[in-house]
Amino acid sequence: MENSPQLIIIGAGPAGLTAAIYAGRAGFTPLIMEKLVPGGQIVLSDKIENFPGFSQQISTRDLMAEMQKQAEAVGMQLVQEEAIGIEKKVISTASGKVYRASAVIIASGTRPRSLGIKGEKKFLGRGVSYCATCDAPFFKNETVAVIGGGNTAVEETLYLTRFARKVYLIHRRRMLRAERILQKRALSHPKIDLILKSVISEIYGEESVEGIRLLNKETGETTQLNCKGVFMFVGLEPNTQFLPGQLKLNRQGFIKTGQNLETNIPGIFACGDVRENLLKQVVVACGEGALAGFMAGKYLDKLGGQEYLDTRHPTQL
Fold first, then answer.
1. Is 227 a known active-site residue?
2. Do residue 150 and residue 221 come from a single domain?
3. How far apart are alpha carbons 97 and 201 in whole angstroms?
4. Which of 133, 156, 236, 268 could form a disulfide bond with 110, CB atoms 3.0-4.6 angstroms apart?
């Protein structure tokens, strides 16, 4: 057994970092496991404009860097580890290390959903992308397509206009699902063309993407659209593949919790996008992180030393 901190948080996105801040302020020294870099899914977007307290758009990376500093200031420890299994609050990792905790907060977030259409996997990294912020500069003065109709799809469409010559926004429904303020910006932008009631059926090309085929859901007509890039924003899948079978999930794989963010396994809590909730937003993740950190602290306090080692701080076994 490598480490035995009292509280382990899986995921260093907004929910995980906020949970660490609240747990740290309660006198614990939380350990956060993050398989990539702190920030979570939000850093795939360039800016955020609906986070309370900021009247102007702010950089997502700057916001998350400040959250990380705040968590570190109250004692948070961060390790680059990927959790691959949990059993009775014993966490195994991809590196082969094993950690035991008295309480666990799962804030592992989500990942972009794949459509599974022909050409999607073949051209990944060669025209197919799930992150406009990451890959937009590769498509300077080119024509690209964005698949999706929610906030993320429209935000990334607007971001792509900084680089691309033309951006087609393609959605399967009669109208977009994004907030009206975002829709208004997209519809009025000269570089953006909106294609509704259509689904992408194939991505084609030789060495890289050359175009897509679209199916109109109402007429059944198939059309061809020439483009060099395809950006997919068709929803999110929860990062719950490593969780034990006895932890209750909904049909989509999101974690079910009670009103205090407790799961059906005592001592394990969940917060943020990985949890079954209605709104996947940074402000919601932060609120849930605060509650999860608080409730995990209360749980540890109730143990009354029964599962504690000798202190509230991580110890090396």
1. no
2. yes
3. 43
4. 236
